[in-house]
Design goal:
single chain; alpha/beta; 11 helices; Bact_Lucif_Oxidored; TIM Barrel; monooxygenase; Luciferase-like_sf; oxidoreductase activity, acting on paired donors, with incorporation or reduction of molecular oxygen; 42% helix
Length: 339
């Protein structure tokens, strides 16, 4: 826990969206992508700052595996919201290919593309081997690969034998994503903004963001540390309805804990009929940075969260089975953040 308190007001905190392109039971990825466009268009109206998509593989309920393609689809169907990756798992790709892809996106949608980078595989080890092949140990090259990316985006690379076209000379913000203190130290050393996966790995959250702030070295990209916290939010008109809707999220994480992944399931009235004590404890630890309830409840909890952490931005992910309920949750959250 941090001893210091922060005096930021909710209305001064940007709020954004993290979309895993979740596939719900009875639907297909095609249905999911239609809903993602609808959510992005509504998020734009609600005042959300960014709409990021996550790279995951071999997960039946997550359809954002071809992340850069989806980013282009979302950006092409919106007008002003920033669109990006939360994140591209860089060891899965060569830096040159990422530079070309995001250079293309930034050329199509100038001033709207973010490049969030992570070092995890975004999947299990067997699938990671299928993705990376001989690059399986590329995770150890993560810092050097970020520098390669920055070089490809630099106008100074014009005389190099290997150039990113498009990409060269474009202003594409790079973010370091992470769920541990290693990523915090890296983001601090490189003077880059830092997004923490507190929505599923909150254990080291406070330690990591404190390390990041204490060790931050200003760079040409960023003068002061900047922290995004990703959080689970399920807002509804009443606490009871939000609690019921949250059972879909809890079942999703139960699948992660047990390794029995399934499509996002409809809500249930009582989780005690679904999970064991062990599963409940494990899921509760994973979703410690979650905000479920009515706008009044969530506003109070968010004010406490901002006071404790001082994060510069929150990024909301909402695993809600019913699309209209999901839209309503994002709208309620936007309204409470505006004050």
């Amino acid at each position: 826990m941090v001893n210091e308190t922060h005096q930021k007001k909710l209305s001064s905190i940007p709020y954004s969206v993290l979309d895993l392109a979740t596939v719900v039971a009875g639907k297909t990825p095609s249905d999911t992508f239609i809903n993602s466009v609808d959510l992005a268009q509504n998020a734009e109206k609600f005042g959300y700052t960014r709409y990021w998509l996550a790279e995951h593989h071999n997960m039946i309920s997550v359809a954002s595996s071809a992340t850069s393609l989806l980013i282009g689809h979302i950006a092409g169907n919106t007008k002003t919201i920033r669109v990006g990756s939360g994140g591209i798992m860089l060891p899965n790709h060569s830096p040159l290919i990422v530079a070309e892809q995001f250079g293309t996106l930034a050329s199509l949608y100038p001033g709207r593309i973010d490049l969030g980078l992570g070092r995890a595989p975004g999947t299990d080890q067997t699938t990671a081997m299928a993705i990376r092949g001989e690059r399986f140990n590329a995770v150890h090259d993560f810092p050097q690969d970020i520098i390669k990316l920055q070089t490809f985006f630099s106008a100074d690379n014009a005389n190099s034998r290997v150039r990113a076209i498009p990409g060269e000379g474009l202003d594409i913000p790079i973010w370091v994503l992470g769920s541990s203190t290693d990523s915090a130290r890296l983001a601090a050393a490189m003077g880059l903004p830092y997004a923490f996966a507190s929505h599923f790995a909150p254990a080291q959250f406070l330690t990591a963001i404190n390390l990041y702030r204490q060790n931050f070295k200003p760079s040409e990209h960023l003068k002061e540390p900047y922290v995004i916290s990703c959080i689970n939010v399920i807002a509804a008109d009443t606490d009871a309805e939000a609690d019921r809707l949250s059972t879909s999220l809890k079942r999703f994480f139960m699948g992660v804990v047990t390794g029995k992944l399934e499509l996002l399931q409809p809500p249930v009235d009582h989780m005690n009929d679904v999970w064991t004590d062990y599963e409940e404890e494990a899921v509760s630890q994973m979703i410690a940075c979650s905000f479920f309830g009515s706008p009044e409840t969530i506003k109070e909890d968010m004010e406490s969260f901002i006071k404790q952490t001082g994060v510069d931005e929150v990024m909301v992910t909402s695993h809600i089975f019913d699309h209209q309920a999901r839209l309503h949750s994002y709208q309620l959250f936007a309204e409470l953040m505006k004050g």
